Amino acid sequence: VTTVRAAVPDDAEACVDVLRHLPDYFTPNTHDEARAVVGGPHRTWVVDGAVGGEIAGFVVVEQRFARGAEITFAAVRPDQRDRGIGTALVERALAELARVGVAIVEVKTLDASAGYEPYVATRAFWERRGFVQIDCIDPLPGWDPGNPSAIYVAALTPTT
Length: 160
Ligand SMILES: CC(C)(COP(=O)(O)OP(=O)(O)OC[C@H]1O[C@@H](n2cnc3c(N)ncnc32)[C@H](O)[C@@H]1OP(=O)(O)O)[C@@H](O)C(=O)NCCC(=O)NCCS
Fold this sequence. Notes:
There is one protein chain. The chain is α+β, with helices and mostly antiparallel strands. Helices cover 28% and strands 29% of the residues. It is built from four helices and seven strands; from the N terminus they run E-H-H-E-E-E-H-E-H-E-E. It has helices spanning 12-20, 29-37, 85-99, 118-128; strands at residues 4-6, 43-48, 55-62, 68-76, 104-110, 132-137, 149-155. The N and C termini lie far apart (37 Å). It binds coenzyme A. Residues 22, 25, 57, 74-76, 81-87, 107, 109, 121-122, 125, 128 line the site of coenzyme A.
């Protein structure tokens, strides 16, 4: 059974440690960003790791609009991958967003045109969770050159 709980500020460093174990996905400049948001202004959920003090995975949601929100971080320690932790985290986040009336959820990831193998599984993960790619933006402001951004959205409720 995977227990998802809301993050507290003290979880920030353990969440950054998850990112540190995923250097193919998260560059060091994302670590400070995660440190600043976990347990802070944006809603974050975590799954505790097997070892005390360790976090197995976490998800961060930023809601800037009443009916739209973005998943800004989703990460699971490589040694804990493929056990349903990412799914449990995303399902919890989407359920909470639906509860507060959010209709559309966005996630940005690396586009297939980058030809970067690690993200093949990532895009498949989002697609299997109901996310649909609606755009590719290259360059995306704030992203390093050479990183075409795939824009994915999921509808939690019909909007028409
Ligand atoms: C994407 C991620 C959050 C998913 O978390 P997870 O706990 O591994 O996910 P789950 O176990 O719930 O589901 C994994 C799914 O991907 C598949 N999968 C897992 N690892 C895989 C791999 N290395 N290659 C291909 N598929 C893989 C599983 O078969 C499963 O398939 P399903 O959707 O048909 O059930 C996690 O793998 C991760 O942190 N990846 C690296 C960072 C990243 O890409 N973050 C998102 C940035 S936008």
